[in-house]
Design brief:
Elements: E1 2-3, E2 11-12, E3 21-26, H1 30-40, E4 44-58, E5 61-75, E6 82-96, H2 99-105, H3 108-114, E7 116-118, E8 122-123, H4 125-136, H5 146-157, H6 167-177
Parallel strand pairs: 1-3, 6-7
Antiparallel strand pairs: 2-8, 3-4, 4-5, 5-6
């Protein structure tokens, strides 16, 4: 079974004896990329490709194996210049119907390692994609050679030295000028 490219349509996972594989390939158009960029508070996404499959491993367990690749353009946290990053990631998720019995048998640290998720009757690709984008998008993007840019900025500061003018230094200067001899 192959799923279409529309992120608004959730993939329906039904528990049955037939262990079909559900393949998907998502390459969103500009309108969806704009929506994702707005949701993620980045300048833009480009060439986003999310493909893989859902496979039923047992009666109560499904597994998602996918590949995600995209370009993201963000503002540099230091200079505010646009920074382009290419991200490539493998996505693996396990959905289980017996989530409560797993959580009772294992400790909290084991659960975080296993990364099991509760099985729902439907899974929405948009939700999974947004979550993976937020996990993989750099939090603090910086332009290349940021140390050189910082050094140039320090040199351009000139006589002020390393520290910028503070309101207290300005008040001190005004106070000196207004003194009566």
């Amino acid at each position: 079974m192959f799923h279409d490219n529309n992120l608004d349509n959730p993939i329906l996972l039904k528990l049955d004896a037939n262990k079909d594989k559900i393949n998907f390939n998502v390459s969103p158009k500009k309108k969806v990329l704009g929506f994702l960029a707005k949701e993620m508070k980045v300048l833009s996404f480009d060439k986003l490709n999310f493909f893989g499959s859902f496979q039923q491993n047992s009666f109560s367990r499904w597994e998602l194996n996918a590949h995600l690749s995209f370009y993201v353009i963000q503002e540099c946290v230091v200079t505010l210049e646009p920074v382009t990053s290419f991200i490539k990631s493998n996505v693996k998720r396990v959905y289980t119907k017996d989530f409560s019995s797993i959580s009772e048998k294992t400790t909290e640290s084991d659960l975080s390692k296993a990364e099991y998720e509760k099985f729902e009757e439907t899974l929405n690709l948009m939700d999974i994609l947004l979550e993976e984008l937020s996990l993989n998008t750099p939090e603090y993007p910086k332009v290349e050679n940021i140390s050189k840019i910082r050094k140039m900025n320090e040199e351009n500061m000139g006589a002020q030295g390393r520290y910028p003018e503070t309101p207290f230094n300005i008040l001190k200067d005004i106070n000196k000028k207004n003194k009566i001899d």
